[in-house]
Design a protein that fits this description.
By secondary structure, the protein is mainly alpha-helical. Helices cover 51% and strands 1% of the residues. The chain is built from 17 helices and 2 strands. The protein is elongated. A two-stranded antiparallel ribbon has the order 1-2.
Length: 405
């Protein structure tokens, strides 16, 4: 049962909601762990263009911080690994009507962020150091990042000439000269562009491959990380005060371990699993139903979500259980986890949540400890008959040797 009392109840109250006696009640929209630092404007602009028009690989190469803030700006779920962030962004891209991202560019002409990059003309390949290689999409993306962040021409000039030529060709610049000339040409072009440009080099001549594609609308609000000014605890000083008030008026049976009076502070120390059970299934439901149950909006949804977890835990902990109980617990657990991912977009799904979904399967395998045919009325006569037979045999004389012969 520790999976339920500590893995679900404790995790929900302490990690997802958060407890603070020094702060007012909040909405628990943000996780306790601080978000990754938001990249600079140009990096976010490049990541946004990769989201709108680029391949899956190009979007993945933007880094976890950029992907996290892309999800935050669009109010998407942003907990988990890069793979999970990518999944949410690709789903959003499909819903918004953008073209399906390309999964691979191997063997194909270079295509950066959905924009066709022309291959250098033969006249531009007469230079003895011009490579015949065609730059891949990943190489172009890496070079574009270097162009956005480079402080000197020498940094960009370290790229291969065919990559620099493709970048110049995309921007309508001349591809003649050595790498240093191409890098200087690109750096001069970058300095002339507005800082808020979506991607370096987007010109009207390169937009033919984006026809009939809806133009992205930049989020009007700031990133979630920029709006954070303090931790957002759901259980603050107001709820803790109501908890203590209800606890003092409550009488519990002697076999129930009560929760501490100083719950939510460092005064008491670590709570046991039985104390978390009492707090999560008795104290908090009574207090929150009285205080949050009359509200509307997010607080009420948070209460319903928490009560789904309490329902499942209480049903699974029953002394006797049948198939209807198991189905009810299974339904409550699934509903709890589904609404959890919607309400708390930064809360991670823990292994304990996954293990809890398997509990109904094991409950169906449980049965009576002793196998029986349920004919309890015949048990007593059988005992009496067997006892009488054994007593009769004890007084019978043993057969003699002559009788055996």
């Amino acid at each position: 049962m520790h999976d339920l009392y500590l893995g679900i109840l404790k995790n929900h109250v302490r990690e997802i909601w958060g407890i603070s006696v020094d702060m007012d009640d909040g909405s628990a929209q943000h996780a306790r762990k601080p978000p990754p630092i938001r990249p600079d404007t140009r990096t976010m602009a490049l990541a946004a263009d990769c989201l709108y028009y680029g391949s899956v690989t190009a979007l993945k190469n933007c880094g976890k911080a950029a992907l996290w803030h892309l999800c935050a700006d669009r109010d998407l779920r942003r907990a988990g690994t890069i793979k999970q962030l990518m999944k949410k962004l690709v789903e959003w891209r499909t819903r918004e009507g953008f073209p399906k991202p390309v999964t691979s560019s191997t063997g194909a002409a270079s295509n950066y962020s959905g924009i066709s990059l022309p291959t250098p003309q033969p006249a531009e390949q007469t230079s003895p150091d011009q490579s015949t290689r065609t730059p891949t999409n990943e190489e172009i993306v890496a070079a574009e990042k270097t162009l956005l962040k480079a402080k000197t021409t020498k940094t960009l000039a370290n790229k291969r000439k065919d990559i620099l030529v493709a970048m110049c060709s995309e921007r309508g610049l001349s591809g003649a000269g050595i790498r240093a000339d191409l890098a200087k040409r690109l750096m001069d072009w970058r300095d002339l562009q507005q800082p808020s440009i979506n991607v370096a080099g987007e010109t009207s001549s390169s937009s033919t491959s984006r026809q009939n594609v809806p133009e992205p609308q930049d989020p009007s609000r700031q990133g979630v990380a920029e709006l954070r000014t303090a931790p957002d605890h759901a259980i603050g000083r107001q709820t803790l005060e109501e908890y203590r008030r209800d606890r003092n008026r409550m009488e519990l049976p002697s076999w129930i371990v009560p929760g501490p009076v100083a719950f939510g502070t460092t005064q008491y120390g670590k709570l046991s699993a039985d104390q978390w059970r009492t707090i999560g299934t008795i104290n908090l439901p009574i207090t929150l139903i009285r205080t949050w149950g009359t509200e509307k909006g997010r607080r009420l949804e948070m209460l319903h979500n928490f009560m789904d977890a309490v329902d499942a835990i209480e049903i699974i902990g029953l002394r006797e259980i049948d198939e209807q109980h198991i189905q009810a617990a299974e339904h409550s657990l699934q509903k709890y986890l589904k609404t959890l991912m919607v309400l708390y977009k930064e809360a991670k799904i823990q292994p304990n949540h996954h293990l809890a979904l398997h509990l109904p399967e094991f409950l169906r395998l449980f049965g009576p400890m002793i196998n029986t045919n349920n004919n309890f009325a015949a048990v007593l006569p059988t005992f009496v008959l067997c006892f009488a037979i054994r007593q009769s045999k004890a007084h019978c004389p043993k057969p003699s040797q002559s009788m055996k012969d």
